[in-house]
Design a protein that fits this description.
Blueprint (H helix, E strand, L loop, with lengths): L7 H17 L3 H14 L11 E3 L13 H8 L3 E8 L4 E6 L3 H4 E3 L5 E3 L5 E2 L6 E3 L4 E3 L4 E2 L5 H5 L9 E4 L5 E2 L13 E3 L4 E2 L1
Parallel strand pairs: 1-2, 1-7, 7-10, 8-11, 10-12
Antiparallel strand pairs: 2-3, 3-6, 4-5, 8-9, 12-13
């Protein structure tokens, strides 16, 4: 009989709890410093400046990096800012262009801000660059998500030539994550101190 407590899935669950705690334990001023460095350096990542459409995400939980300034960065560079909306029926992410933070966002699942119904839908094949969320990343560039599998299903539908990057606070980097066959590494991870490629 297999020990279920040592399966990749159970180890991921335990790691999620630890990662949330370690992020929230960062001193507020240190976390702010790290986030500012990440937002400042993110536009210098490979492919970002040339991308016509950039898939971003809004912070939905206290432990998530405040990515909201990147909306203005993408728009200033002349790009389309694309954001996901959870489709609870099909259990997948649908993508929409957001032109105005004030007018195009509405509370969705769990009160998380999502693109409103009037936003233009975008197919994954149209995305030029992806900012991938995650709770943890390892030296092989594998990511630990929240367990719903939304990005695991979305990323294979984005062109293979479109860069897929993550930004992470220092406590979010671990030596090795438990991985399963469906896990796909990102192209790179930016931390305040280095780039993992």
């Amino acid at each position: 009989m297999t020990d279920q407590t040592d399966s990749p899935r159970s180890r991921k669950r335990a790691l999620r709890r630890r990662m949330v705690a370690s992020i929230l334990e960062l001193a507020p001023e240190e976390r702010l410093r790290q986030e500012q460095v990440l937002i400042e350096r993110c536009p210098t990542l490979p492919g970002f400046a040339e991308a016509s459409s950039v898939l971003l995400y809004f912070p939905a939980f206290p432990e998530e990096i405040d990515t909201r300034p990147l909306f203005d960065v993408v728009r200033t560079m002349g790009g389309q800012a694309i954001y996901p909306r959870v489709d609870p029926v099909e259990k997948r992410l649908r993508l929409f262009e957001v032109v105005s933070i004030a007018e195009d966002l509405t509370p969705g699942t769990l009160g998380i801000l999502e693109p409103a119904g009037h936003c233009r839908e975008v197919e994954p094949g149209e995305i030029d660059w992806v900012l991938v969320p995650g709770l943890a990343f390892d030296e092989r560039r594998f990511r630990l998500g929240r367990g719903a599998g939304h990005y695991d299903r979305l990323l294979p539908r984005v062109p293979a030539t479109s860069p897929k990057w993550a930004i992470a606070l220092e406590p979010q980097i671990v030596a090795a994550l438990p991985s399963e066959p469906h896990d796909i590494p990102v192209d790179g991870v930016l931390t305040p101190s280095r780039v993992i490629e």
